[in-house]
Amino acid sequence: MSNQIPTQPGIMEIALYVSGEARIEGRDEVLKLSSNENHYGCSDKARDAYLRAAVNLHRYPNTDHAALRAAIGEIHRLDPDRIICGVGSDEVLQFITQAYAGPGDEVITTEHGFSMYPILAHAAGATPVTVPEAERRIDVEAILGAVTDRTRIVFIANPANPTGTMLTEAELERLASGLPKHVLLVHDGAYAEFADGFDGGAGLVDAYPNVVMTRTFSKIHGLGGLRIGWGYARREVIDVLNRLRQPFNLSEGQMAAAEAAVRDVEFTARCREENARWRHWLRNALVQMGVGCDESFANFVLARFANPEEADACDKALKENGILVRKVGGYGLPDCLRITVGDESACRRVVHAIGTFKGVR
User: Fold this and answer.
1) Helix/strand/coil (H, E, C) string of 217-266?
2) Cα Dmax for the chain
3) pTM
4) What are phi and psi of 128, to 5 degrees?
């Protein structure tokens, strides 16, 4: 006789999330290029603000994140009252799915889209619907063609993870304008700061009532260890999401570090410039070795090999050289490796290792 307590619909359909590897057995020193972290760390100002916040560990944090929202609004020229903060952008995405999707509803994701999207759909009891991409780029017409009366949410990451590709402004406009009013377009801009001149989807939010933009402090701001994200939408949507947010979801340390990070625009600009420089260099070096690599607008590149066996062999060779990258077979890309862009030393080291593996160095 089973005494198992029944779960809600969709829960057991969830595939456990697999993060990038962090260790290599038998090696103390590892070059970790598997999780798209900021190789330059975080702003010194953010670190100092976090340490100063430690004197108030006995106090409950502010519940409305007012100072952090004000800083985000000031730097990004957004209305702070239309911003919600969460434990990473994942929590904001969870609020959205919980609020707007449920049993009988459909949530559209793309072929190589971020793996959290179907997880969140299943957690809400909704059905994830995967649409094909076109040569590792989001296919707007395929998304619009997949919309039904049951569709409630469309998730896109732009720039996309793990491909690094990006929709043009015209393509984004076509997608937003083509969706029915009952469908919420969620524009995940986790890597938006790495795309020079891109507003991360803020303009779409202002133009369309059914668009939400999410952002994170884990990437260009280098605060992945603290888990802080935010979303921007119409006031009516933010009001709904705030009803799902727990009152003390962010600590004082998280908020202090994030506020200092977003205000340190000089550090952010340096990280963007260095990333662009070495991303370009890394891609060109891979292409010259015969490794396929699309233009990336994020802080990583997607290296394409002849077949899954070559990708696996290269991954093994990199590990033997103390280098960790990300296998992305779970994203439908078994012949690819995702490589985080590091500093000059890291990029030269990974290129040398791949070149040796390919027999061209």
Assistant:
1) CCCCCCCCCCCCEEEECCHHHHHHHHCCCCCCCCCHHHHHHHHHHHHCHH
2) 64
3) 0.93
4) -75, 135
